[in-house]
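Today's session is about reading a structure prediction critically. Students often jump straight to the picture, but the first step is always the sequence itself: look for stretches that repeat, for charged clusters, for runs of hydrophobic residues. Only then move on to the predicted structure, which in these notes is written as discrete structure tokens rather than atom positions. Here is the chain we will use throughout the hour.
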Amino acid sequence: MAENKSPALDRVTSALRDVAAIAAWTEHDWDQAVREARRAGLLARLAHLIAERGLDTAVPLRARPHLEAACVLARKHGEDVARELRYIAAALRGVPGPVVLLKGASYAAAGVPAAVGRLFGDIDVMVPRASIVQAEAALVANGWHGVKGDDYDQRYYRRWMHEIPPLQHRARRTTIDVHHTIVPPTGRHAVDGRRMIDGAVPVPAAPGFLVLSPADMILHAAVHLFDDGEWSNGLRDLDDINRLLRHFAARPDFWPRLAARAQQLRLERPLFYALRYAAALLATPVPPALLATPALRPPTAWVRRWMDWVFVRALQPAHPDCARRGTGVALFFLYIRAHYLRMPLRLLLPHLLRKAVVKRLKPVEA
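Below is the predicted structure for this chain, in token form.
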């Protein structure tokens, strides 16, 4: 991706960038776009964008049931999350300290545009590190249990990670991740979770919970996307950032505050990548001066060119029809990079070696 040239876009990204693009789609385009958007977790969001722009008549009759079904599923997910939050709030009522919602659940509770048409896999919360033992005990007492039974995994999470092992409810089968910060403390972009908790704000729609401040919400989304090795929902997560930026940019001094907060938390590089690719792929109106400022610690020109090649491939719908030459290489590189960012080599190499040996020795089920 050259500095002054946008990359070629797939159908779904083109529609997220400007939904009017669907007017030129053929039936074949629609057939592919529905498959690709569903795989990316973006079919319901695409349907909402079409409805907002009054473009329903541009949708072929054969595609409409798929969009309607996606909206029904997204509404059901939203209702399930709202109900689950009430159970979690009741379970954690006696735990000292605030409980902060993260990622998708926080978007839904705050009512921001990133919640529209979104599907939810689990619920993420953050509590002060001093309260995490009480939080886990309270959840276990109310029907949740650990799903990582291996003793090594338990020790690994509790010693090195930013969260305890996931908990699943025995009856409802819902999963909750309890964090004490947003990235592993051993990582290159380690963050003091207490600083983010201190800046969190209450939300009337979710009594008993807080959500991150606007800048912190975006920074968490940025570091979660660009430092992680899971890219199956990469385009959806980038569009979350796009919609958060567009929504909060209406606030006075939003952009300077966002940049200053990134510097305070030392998350300049993830923010740079988030702004760069949101602007390039989704036409997010990011001030050019902000992208050019040294304050965000942009990489050197040759690193930028390499990361452009990598991220443009990773930030496409995870569908075979969207794969470009080199997509597998890009995803493998990002997987290795994520582990490198997560912990130093002296800890990482023994961990990966053990996981590889265990995987190789694990018996194959008939």
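Discussion point for the tutorial: The chain has a mean pLDDT of 90.
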